[in-house]
């Protein structure tokens, strides 16, 4: 049965993200019960109409789906395990960042206790919740997803990937890996620019359009990787080796550590040494698995 805005929702965990999620549910008209390990973090939410619960058992008595947004996999077990008797027959949506295998472990644990389980990965910071640009990726119980889609869309754009509870987390962590290497590339460039007196803010203004333009190459790389044919390069590994060698020298000359550049330089050097210099740069993926 599809829900209405009258469907009660419980949120376990009132860190920055849990508070943002609970606030969006309240704003959307859902009776919202909240709990946090350390008391006192529910003050603003209670003032806005949420019901503050003193324990997990009390929080889940409100009925409806239970959204869990805690620190990590261990804190999810620390919170849910003691309340397992109250959770049997209920729906748990875990939006805590967990690895794919941790999400699968939680799904198996939930199934063993008669709990329906949906995992999710939040692709947003708290201030983005309820705003355009935020998305949450889901996998696990399709029943929970379909039944509560209206509530999920109050939080962020929602997308469901399949019944393997680890799928959403795989997307989440793959995207985060992409994000972190992009951020570290920016830090590396900003350190180089600092050596000639250019501020990081000024560099950021140039880096944004450059990174945005270069990101447009990703679909072409994707097609080459999926074809498995690296013989018609956009740019060869030998070309990129020369570039990385020069970037390495320029980095050292600027007094900057090569820590961020070294991993990709090492991967390219290895392939060129193995005789693959004429092949497409995207072949580097074959060195990763
Ligand atoms: P916070 O550090 O602000 O809050 C952590 C929450 O976990 C608090 O409610 C804390 O309770 C609780 N907690 C920690 N350890 C335990 C434990 N052993 N038992 C019970 N509760 C515990 O984190 P966020 O709210 O920012 O993040 C929550 C989740 O959302 C994380 O998994 C994070 O990766 C994910 N996320 C966060 C994003 C962000 O930008 N903030 C972005 C995308 C995902 P207490 O107050 O008692 O310490």
What does the model show?
49% of the residues lie in helices and 12% in strands. It has 2 domains: 162 residues, NAD(P)-binding Rossmann-like Domain (Rossmann fold, 3-Layer(aba) Sandwich), CATH 3.40.50; 107 residues, N-(1-d-carboxylethyl)-l-norvaline Dehydrogenase, domain 2 (Orthogonal Bundle). The protein starts with 8 loop residues before the first strand and ends in a 16-residue tail after the last helix. It is an alpha/beta fold and 289 residues long. Helix 12 runs antiparallel to helix 13. The protein has an 8-stranded mixed sheet, with helices on both faces. It has 13 helices and 8 strands. The model has no long low-confidence stretch (mean pLDDT 97). The protein binds NADPH dihydro-nicotinamide-adenine-dinucleotide phosphate. The site of NADPH dihydro-nicotinamide-adenine-dinucleotide phosphate has 21 residues, from helix 1 and helix 4.
Examine the coordinates and then state which fold CATH places here, giving the name of the CATH topology of the largest domain: Rossmann fold
Per CATH, the superfamily of the largest domain is NAD(P)-binding Rossmann-like Domain
Pattern of helices and strands: EHEHEHEHHEHEEHHEHHHHH
Strand order of the largest sheet: 3-2-1-4-5-6-7-8
Describe the main β-sheet briefly: 8 strands, mixed
